[in-house]
Amino acid sequence: MSQAKHPAGSEAVRITGGCRCGGVRYEAEGEPWNLTICHCLDCRGATGAPMVGWLTVRREACRLTGRPTWFRSSARAERAVCPACFTHLAYRADDLPDEIDLTLASLDAPERFPPRDHVWVSRRLSWVTLPDGLPAYPRARDEA
Length: 144
Ligand SMILES: [Zn+2]
Ligand SMILES: [Zn+2]
Prior knowledge:
CATH superfamily: glutathione-dependent formaldehyde- activating enzyme (gfa)
Strand content: 35-45%
Number of strands: 10
Helix content: under 10%
Radius of gyration: 14 Å
Shape: globular
Bound molecules: zinc ion
Largest sheet: 7 strands, mixed
Low-confidence stretches: none
Number of domains: 1
Distance between the termini: 12 Å
């Protein structure tokens, strides 16, 4: 299990974001958790990027508008992209039905939510240098 609990009493936090063309937008209420940079092969293969930044919010508190395209990126999860400009927006795992992950770089205010750790660094590309000071987990955080 990943961290299913979210901080209580933080409903004032509002997160908004969306794709590059503006066709798909999202908004979420509540303090996000699992702010991370993921180096896994699934994220890399699905995006073509060397790593992907994420945060997690409650699925019931997150609303996507504009008909994103969901596709199955692994046996256990789906990802959402904009059907017009293909910005990578969201991730939902089958075994975590209360959670949805949003890409940090698609937030309207990504500077407000810097990552707190790195995960799957066992898959890190050799030319990606990790900044000092953040925890770095070889695999998923809960497998550390
Ligand atoms: Zn778009
Ligand atoms: Zn990943």
